[in-house]
Write a structure and sequence with these properties.
With 282 residues, the chain is mostly beta strands. It has 1 helix and 26 strands. It has a 7-stranded antiparallel beta sheet, with no helix packed on it. Strands 2-3-4-11-6-9-12 form a 7-stranded antiparallel beta sheet, with no helix packed on it. The protein has a 4-stranded antiparallel beta sheet with strand order 5-10-7-8, with no helix packed on it. A hairpin with a 4-residue loop joins strand 7 and strand 8. The longest helix is centred in the C-terminal third of the chain and has 12 residues.
């Protein structure tokens, strides 16, 4: 089977304390992807207050080059600290309050925030927060200097201990030459180049797609995707089952219908998503 590639270029905005490079797949009309959007952000201080989420998973991955770690609190009672290479997966389900900030105000936090959709039958799951610190992420290496951090899901024989309710793969790739990635039937994948440059080759008969830092590609179909880099590149590879269901977004909620959005807003206003004070300034 063939693999279809679609390139995406994000947009950057921000200031000295907060900058974000954003790629919104839903706004670009990409259908079937479980990844709604990805923000590559750099932040200092406390720019955001506690806020709700419902209907999807709000995922924050801390890049290994981040000067500081992530502190994440939620209305389930969690106060989580992960360093570079760590992840916090807030599976919001029917609704939860959370607040994420740099672990130390004097250090910048560099990470990726990813909105991963939940299928219709899991939109109202009880909320759950999963996390994994950097040293606990399984890692694969070869003699050529290629490296794969298995943050979520599996790569070869390695399996991440972080297991969300719905199947998903998140790999942090460091590629010195080339690497093959398997795209399974009924999967929709997304690759984001966080640094360097990379070329994607589905087959010898299909054209190669070249990507620079900050660019991405969505991938449909199944087979082997070869990723090349002429020097060195870091990429995030995200993949999950295709979701061809209606999507309605409103602020911090992602549902299938407008009524479900209204119901989520009502749960929030009634306090059913819990309460959360801002994380302390330490």
């Amino acid at each position: 089977m063939t693999i279809e590639l679609t390139a995406h270029r994000g947009h950057t905005q921000g200031n000295a304390d907060f900058s974000v490079h954003s790629i919104d797949l839903h706004a670009r009309g990409v259908h079937g992807s479980p990844v709604i959007m990805l923000d590559d952000f750099r932040v200092k201080g406390r720019p955001f207050q506690p806020h709700p989420h419902a209907g999807f998973s709000a995922v924050t991955y801390v890049f290994e080059d981040s000067p500081g770690g992530l502190r994440s609190g939620d209305s389930l009672g969690n106060d989580i600290l992960v360093g570079p290479g760590g992840i916090v997966w807030t599976q919001a389900g029917r609704g939860v309050m959370h607040h994420e900030v740099p672990a130390h105000q004097d250090r910048q936090l560099h990470g990726a925030q990813i909105f991963v959709n939940l299928s219709a039958h899991n939109k109202l799951l009880e909320p759950q927060t999963l996390w994994l610190d950097g040293p606990s992420v399984p890692e694969w290496k070869n003699d050529q200097g290629d490296r794969v951090r298995v943050v979520v899901g599996r790569f070869g024989a390695l399996v991440s201990p972080l297991a969300p309710a719905e199947e998903f793969t998140l790999l942090d790739l460091e590629i010195q030459g080339q690497m093959d990635l398997e795209i399974r039937p009924e999967q929709h994948a997304f690759l984001y180049v966080s640094s360097g440059n990379a070329s994607l080759s589905p087959t010898a008969r299909q054209p190669t797609l070249d990507l620079l830092s900050g660019q991405a590609a969505s991938v449909r179909g199944s087979g082997t995707l070869t990723v090349h880099s002429s020097t060195s590149a870091r990429l995030l590879f995200l993949a999950g089952p295709q979701l061809y269901e209606p999507i309605v977004r409103s602020g911090p909620f992602i549902m299938n219908t407008r009524k479900e959005i209204a119901d989520a807003a009502e749960r929030y206003e009634a306090g059913h998503m819990g309460h959360l004070s801002p994380l302390p300034n330490d």
